[in-house]
Amino acid sequence: MTAFAVPVPQRLAAPEPGWTDTVDVVVIGSGVAGLTAALKARELGSVLVVTKDVVASGSTQWAQGGIAAALHPEDSPEEHLHDTLVAGAGLSDEEAVRVLVTEGPEAVRDLIELGARFDTLADGEISLGREGGHHRNRIAHAGGDATGAEIERALVAAVKRAPDIRLVEHALVLDLLTAEDGAVAGVTLHVMGEGQLDGVGAIRARAVILASGGLGQLYAATTNPSVSTGDGMALALRAGAKVRDLEFVQFHPTVLWLGKSAKGQQPLVSEAVRGEAAFLVDHTGKRFMQGQHELADLAPRDVVAKAIMRQMLATGNDHVYLDARHFGDEKWRVRFPTILASCRSHGIDPVRELIPVAPACHYSSGGVWTDLNGHTSVPGLYACGEVACTGVHGANRLASNSLLEGLVFARRIAAHLADALPALRQPAADRRTAGLADADVVPELQRSMTVGAGVIRSASGLAEATATIGKLAEQPAGEAGTPGWEATNLVTVASALIAAAAAREESRGAHWREDHPDRDDLHWSGSLDLTLEPATGDQAVPRATFVSRESEENDRHG
Q1: Residues 6+ positions from 328 with CB-CB distance below 8 Å
Q2: pLDDT tens, 294-324?
Q3: DSSP reduced 3-state for 266
Q4: Regions of the chain with pLDDT less than 70
Q5: pLDDT of residue 118
Q6: Is 252 helix (H, G, I), strand (E, B) or coil?
Q7: What number of CA atoms fall less than 13 Å from residue 136's CA on the CB side?
Q8: Are 515 and 459 in contact (CB under 8 A)?
């Protein structure tokens, strides 16, 4: 066992399935990636969508900025590719990015045909904004700053119009069912008393598509909803899948600061606000992004987040300010109605006052490794959206590429399955030892991750986080149930993330090591793959393996 590893269960402790069902494809998650995958996969056979809360409760609905695509005649996929590669800090897979930017415009137009209504100009053309890291106006938005909500609305409506897609809400997927050779045979899940299915059951399936979102609840403050507890990443690790680039957690630079005691999901102040010429200032009113980057306040997110943290450390303050008073009342009401309402609900009027902001956990650039068709290292298991590592984001996601990635790679998964839908397999007996974390450990885990594995990291901070979470993982657990299962998933993903962050002894993109402050292309121009391996006793520990750029490309492209 390494010094930076917390032992975790090999599978979740849960009652034996009390019911079974069989479908062709199970989709886990109901955001842009999951619903797009379901709509495309329905042509292949029966589809079941499993979602943890109600269908529209995931991260997609909270996306404010928009969706990036080269839709303007003066823009091009090549320019979008360049901006994405720059933001990725040398670790983006160029072929994966090329897939994203070339297939992206068609995917957005397909979304419009499905019923999504984007904001338009007087001539009817889509209104395109700009965000950090983009050298062109290429961000399509809806309802001013309610793009995710509009996309989710259109997709949910389309799914509900499709009689051949079944939807199971209030259901937490527990573990994969696998055949003797390790290939997917289905999933186990717990349905929380809604509809005909209830309690723990098993769904046999020919393919499983993970679209379960991110890991934001690892941290005390995040823009992610409460359902983002890393369930898909933990499930994949326990099934033997490799997870890549997990150390690159993006902290959004401008999250509304609500005080030191604020916890959980925090209101986002979209990058699009800076795209419309708002700017950051410190407590004296000084603009501090000038000279930090050629794009100043519109620099990539990792650059802005680090600059804010440096300013906070230098001044002893726990937040900075965003100045958008020059917008005036009408622009705030028309372009950013959601953010305006959010600020005012917390007693801040951005029309007349500075907006207090600080970085908070926002997005996982890494995730379950996939090839260009969304296939993971486990036969029959696919992944798309934030849970996946397609190679697009590298060390830092470019603003508004996430919705596009979900669309493009969900479509690719369905296209691949049309030619290669596996046969239905017989589940093998699961001989792995089951375990469970105490549900009460979550607040202390979040505090420990925020301090030791947050925006600023070091060997000593990561070691302290490992020790704390290790003790939390040893606490006796209560009865099996959703709180305990979520806590176990958080402990599992935290252990893997810390192992990766400790192994990468450099600073790159969203990974900032104060004890290794420079980017080191000589030794670290590649990715870290994480897998669970059996440890002493009946648990497993994450193991990080470095993969060179050449090996990585061969791996992903076959």
Answers
A1: 351
A2: 889 988 888 899 899 989 989 999 999 999 9
A3: coil
A4: 1-2, 56-59, 61-64, 193-197, 553, 558
A5: 93
A6: strand
A7: 20
A8: yes
Tokens of 318: 């726990």
The residues, ordered by sequence, that sit 6+ positions from 397 with a Cβ below 8 Å of its Cβ are 87, 250, 301, 363, 365
The residue to which tokens 């897609």 are assigned: 165
Hey, which residues are catalytic here?
301
**How far apart, in whole angstroms, are the C-alpha atoms of residue 108 and residue 116?**
9
Cα radius of gyration (the chain) = 22
Residues 452/464, Cβ–Cβ less than 8 Å: yes
- Which are the contacts of 455, defined by CB distance < 8 A and separation ≥ 6? 251, 305, 306, 309, 359, 512
Three-state SS letters, 447-477: HHHHHHECCCECHHHHHHHHHHHHHHHCCCC
At position 71, the amino acid (one-letter code) is: L
- The single residue listed with the structure tokens 């990561």 is 462
pLDDT in tens, 183-213: 999 999 999 865 556 799 999 999 999 999 9
Q: What is the DSSP string of 68-99?
A: E---STT--HHHHHHHHHHHTTT-S-HHHHHH
Reference 292, options 301, 283, 458, 513; nearest CA is 301
Report the helix count and the strand count for the chain, using DSSP H and E: 15, 24
428: burial class by Cβ within 10 Å (0-12, 13-18, 19+)? middle
Tokens 């519109």, located at residue: 298
Which residue in the block uniquely carries the two structure tokens 């993969």? 547
- Write out the two tokens for 378: 């486990």
Q: How far apart are CA 219 and CA 396, in angstroms?
A: 18
Torsion sign across C-alpha atoms 291, 295, 296, 299: negative
> What pLDDT was estimated at residue 1?
40
Name the 3-class secondary structure at 360: strand
pLDDT of residue 357: 96
| CA–CA distance, 497 with 493 (Å, rounded to integer) | 6
Give the pairing of strands 184-191 and 199-210.
antiparallel
